[in-house]
Amino acid sequence: QVQLVESGGGLVQAGGSLRLSCAASGRTFSSYVMGWFRQAPGKEREFVAAITWRNGDTYYVHSMKGRFTISRDNAKNTVYLQMNSLKPEDTAVYYCAARQGGFDSAAKADFGSWGQGTQVTVSS
Question: Which tens digits make up the pLDDT trace of 76-91?
Fold first, then answer.
């Protein structure tokens, strides 16, 4: 059973940075894609970024590329989301997710495993 545990959220001022972590366990993840999603109050959960565990190929929502960077540490079974130049509209609960196979869709329904989420609040 895949277990994903996020950490690193918090309160930050606009323009600041945060690094989220997602510790993964329960499987050998070499054939997995790991993703980050976020959900703001009253909004749908949306895709942020993804990375293939095997090759480290990365995928981003266009609007966040350049500010957010996804990476992984194979030895620690951990995926990171570095978030820079944060804006109040980045305020959301951020979720780590996992799916088997390649990345051919950013749809949340295609990710079968989820963490509990970590709150990110950006003040103006």
Answer: 999 999 999 999 999 9
Structure tokens at 42: 């009253």
Residue pLDDT, tens place only, 17-60: 999 999 999 988 888 999 999 999 999 999 999 999 999 999 99
**Angle at Cα 80 formed by Cα 75 and Cα 84, nearest 5°?**
145
Q: Find the largest Cα–Cα distance for the chain.
A: 41
d(CA 113, CA 124): 33
Separation of alpha carbons 46 and 29, rounded Å: 23
Whether residue 96 contacts residue 45, with contact meaning beta carbons closer than 8 Å, is answered with no
Spatial separation of the C-alpha atoms in residues 12 and 4, rounded to whole Å: 24
How far, in Å, CA of 24 to CA of 36, rounded?
Answer: 13
Least Cα distance to 20 among 76, 93, 89, 105 occurs for 93
